Structures are given as structure tokens and as C-alpha cells.
Amino acid sequence: MTTDGPTNGAAAPRVGCVYRPQTAPERIAAAANAADAAGLDELWLWEDCFLAGGVSAAAVALSHSTELTVGVGVLPVPLRNVALAAMEIATLARAFPGRVRIGMGHGVQDWMAQVGEKVGSPMTLLREYLTCLTALLRGEHVTFHGRYVSLDRVQLDWPPEPMPGILAAAEGPKTLRLSGELAAGTVITSGTSPDQLRVAVSRVREGSGTRPHTIVTYLLCTTGPDARRELLDEIGEWGYDPGADLGVWGTADEIAGGARRWLDAGADTLVFQPRASTPIEEFVEFVGAEVSPLLRRS
User: Fold this and answer.
1) Model pTM score
2) What is the mean pLDDT of the chain?
3) Do 77 and 149 meet the contact criterion of CB atoms below 8 Å apart?
4) CA distances from residue 217 to 139, 160, 269 in whole angstroms, order as listed
């Protein structure tokens, strides 16, 4: 199984859900099991300060499922030495081949400052980091001395087979192009409208050219009798524009129909993002059993 294919109109989209880190980590196992049983393609975890660790949370989810792909979106690169990140990712990928997707990102700058890891040029760090991380995961012998990343004859003893494609979180034009150039895919944040997604994908393609590059998009989603109001509340809590096209709500048919706007705009993986208060086991069951089949048939 591969999870890093190109955006392709002939291919069925991959469908996932976000496990919000505001939900206690001891519930990850049950959520992953429920997602697996419901036929959901992917479960995505966040590493937000100062909640659950992304790699350890992914290990829990992977060990309590059999088919589910688990994504981490994303690991903030200032927090980890690149060699350590490569070791952690390789361990997951070898233990659970074909089921791991890892995204890397600048990190929230206020949080990075809070832990003493903020850098002067996040773009330079991300470029150096992605270059070295992918080389290490390919099993290469790496010597590199950059502004932030320094490696001297480093090589993994247990490189992953197959190598997981490393994704990058990107929002601004420069980071989008960098992701297209150096990553296997791009993670697009929630609060991105279909029109904004089209622009972002065009920026990514400036970097990737004709090479395969996957587009993972988080999408705000609510269901139930008060779904529309809850979506507007969620949009407001994030500080997004309440008049913009930023989410889907309603029944499975309504959600699948609305989500196609993001597929048409260039996403090949849709990751439905619930409210933090939503019971996560119920949400993954609903998306996996009811929404996902509708999107696959489309």
C-alpha cells in the first residue's frame, strides 16, 4: 500500500479524520481501533505545545489498528535534532510499513520562542532539515554543515523499507514552493477555502514541477442537528472569516457533496477536522462508515 501518490482525477481520494490533541492521549487507542473498524483511510495527529507527543501518539494509534494509516501533521522542526527525527520515523515506518505519513513544519513561532528554540530564519532551517531528513531516510551517509543543521558522517543503521514520503506544512508562497521542491506532499491547514487551495496548489507545483506530490487538506466538519451553528462557532473560535467557504456540515450526503469542492481544487487527501468537544470515536465511525464511501464512489 502506498499513501504518497500524486493528485490524480482518476484516483479515489483518501479520507481521514483529525484526532484533536485536546482529547486525552489515553483515548487514542480506542479512536484508532474505531477508525480502523469503520474503514477510515487515515487518522491524523497534531503535535501542539504542550499536549501529546506526535511520534508516541502515532505509535499508540498504529499499534491499535491493522489497516489504518496514521499521519502526524506536523512535527515542528526546531524541537528535534534531525538525526533523532530520522531515527523515530524510521522506527515507525519499519514496524508499520506503508502506514505512516509524517509532516514537518516551522512550528508556531510563539511556542518555539517559549521553549527557547525559535530561529532567525525558519525557511532556512526547514530547507536544511528536509534535505537532510530525506537523505537519512534513504539510508545515505550524510555530512552536512548548514546554518542550523550539522551532521558529520551520519547514517541510519535501520533505514525504513519502504521509505515514507515526508510532507511539509505550508501556508505562505515561499514555504509552499519549498514544500513542492523538497517534500513528497504538502499539508494544508483548515480555514483554507477551495479558491485559496487552488492558489496554494499552484505554488506547490512551481516547486514540484511534474513530480508526484500529494496534497493533504484539513477540513472543518460538523454533523448533527446543530451542525451549521457549530461550524460557525468553530470558525469564530479559530478567528477565521465567517463569510468564507471554510467547512462542511450536515448529513453524510451533505458533507460528501460539500467536500468535493476541495477535491476539485486539488486535494487528494481530505482530513475532516471535528470540534475539540466532539466525541472522537463517534466522529471517526461516522466519517469512515458513511462519508468515506460516498467520496470514494465519486
Assistant:
1) 0.95
2) 96
3) no
4) 29, 26, 6
